[in-house]
Amino acid sequence: MNLGKCIISGLLALLIAAIVLPMSVCVYVTWTVHPGKNEAAIGFDPISMVRSSPSVWVIAVLIFGLGFYLQYRRLKARPRSSVQN
């Protein structure tokens, strides 16, 4: 049961890092940076970034591992309740 909770925590950490953070950066840049009259818009293509660089996969594994480890450590420190039959 604890292992399942740790895996879910790792996946949630990965989801937050992979979706929420880049989206918030894009929204912030969109609101703060406005192109001038003679400038063109800049596109953002996350699919090409994932295909071109294996470091993205390494970062994803590290984020998952960090979320997994922190949840595992938290559950190990929690005292167990004794169930009597």
In short:
The chain is mainly α. It has three helices and no strands. It has a domain at 2-32 and 52-77.
List SSEs in N-to-C order.
Answer: HHH
Helix content: over 70%
- How many beta-strand runs? 0
Task: Quote the beta fraction.
Answer: under 5%
From the N-terminal CA to the C-terminal CA, the straight-line distance is: 20 Å
What is the radius of gyration? 20 Å
> How many helices in DSSP terms?
3
* Structural category: mainly alpha
What is the average of the pLDDT values? 77
The largest sheet is: none
Shape: elongated
Low-confidence stretches: none
Describe, in plain words, how this protein is organized in 3D.
By secondary structure, the chain is mostly helical. 72% of the residues lie in helices and 0% in strands. It has a domain at 2-32 and 52-77. The protein contains three helices and no strands. The two termini are 20 Å apart.
